Amino acid sequence: MAQLAKLDDIVALCKRRGFIFQSSEIYGGLASCYDYGPLGVELKRNVREAWWKAVVKMRDDVVGLDCSILMHPLVWKASGHADKFADLVTVCKKCNTRSRVDHLADHHGHAEEHTEHVDIDKAAATPHDLSRKVCPACGAVGQFGAPMAFRLMFETQMGANVEDTMTLFLRPETAQGIFVNFRNVLDTTRVKIPFGIAQIGKSFRNEVTTKAFIFRTREFEQAELEFFCAPGTDDEWYEHWKAERFRWYTDLGIRKENLRFREHDPDELAHYAKACVDVEYRFPFGQGDWQELEGIANRTDYDLRQHQRGMRTVNDWMAAGRDLTAIGLKEEAEDYLSGPLSYFDEQTRQRFIPYVIEPSAGVDRSTLAFLVDAYDEEEVRGEVRNVLRFHPALAPVKVAIFPLVKKDGMPETARALYDDLKRRYASFYDEKGAIGRRYRRQDEAGTPYCVTVDGQTKEDGTVTMRDRDSMEQIRVPLDQVRTWLSEKLDV
What we know:
This protein is α+β, with helices and mostly antiparallel strands. It folds into three domains: 7-79 and 155-369, 2-Layer Sandwich (BirA Bifunctional Protein, domain 2); 86-151; 397-489, Rossmann fold. 29% of the residues lie in helices and 26% in strands. The protein is built from 13 helices and 25 strands. It has a seven-stranded mixed β-sheet with strand order 3-11-12-18-15-14-13. Strands 22-21-23-24-25 form a five-stranded mixed β-sheet, with helices on both faces. Helix 3 (73-79) crosses helix 8. The radius of gyration is 26 Å and the shape is globular.
């Protein structure tokens, strides 16, 4: 049974084995930014592909999308991000460290750790008692300035000339690209409600506080699904996606005792949400270790209505020749059901704005959870063996091929087998060092199986197959290695 790893162990293994490096390390590093090494990029790609397979490929009611990171600034005005996507922060008067108010712990170590963001215009008027809060940098108690809103979106400029320069945002989430393409997908595919649109891509948030390796960073990758359904069926689909997403983690090897649901309290819900639940994982850090792995929200019809309202406002202002930058996108009391983001159900003969169920997972955060849960240490013949017990679908390398020694034709046979297997599986060839050390290196990389060509291979045409988890070895005919592996790996 694998034991819960310490974060320091995970970070050390990631650096040692080439999973994850500090970004710009030779220049002293860049805070909360990380680069995925040769093994890490394969692991993360496998996590991404496992999500896509489960959410898109294995279903008949979900299609994919890949939207631009840069979008028109009015998208973020309509979605509410321009006015509401901020954290409430305060500055320690003693050491000048800026902290999120909801992350400050009191002298008993208790912190709120809410993830909802604040309305920029209302932030200053919200009362907060910080008299017992402790500065995480210097330990001062109650020495904080007045809370203020800190906008989380990164800004950039588009346009070569002064007169056509536009201020844009790096997207803080991938979801809005899906909402603004809702009609395009309807018009170009044969999907019907209920159906989903899935997307995996980079998002950016200028987080006040980053945290725990790749758990919370300013540049990250999201895997999001917007599942559109008829109002009145949303509760059923909400429960459906809760079960589906929980099962995805356990099917890929996460132990159930390390997962749980946490329903959001009514006062914790986002402004657009009817309900929301977090899939939490028992990470080896933080307050009580339980931290959000994925959020599943019932976003109602909020986003499509907002963009429908935004489209009408833009059209009205453009027709009047007015400046688009001044648009407030205020809510008007009018019927939105006739707009392009509505849906007409041919069976019920009803038109409605669809409700949306959104499972939103962080690819980096999921990768970290799979790393933590796979990590194990055990004593083997007086030595500590570090091993990553990845599910075969996630393992960066599926099979490693070794010649026992570099003579007697073993390298040639092993190389030929490697050339054959790499056409189907992520494979690794190694002929350097003692065979035991080669096995240990692959254990740390999480490789499920090792194949060794030895002296007996020439005699009876068999090779040694070694299992990573049990370390058991069996003989398999050379010409049956691929078939044997397919039974183990094609899951």
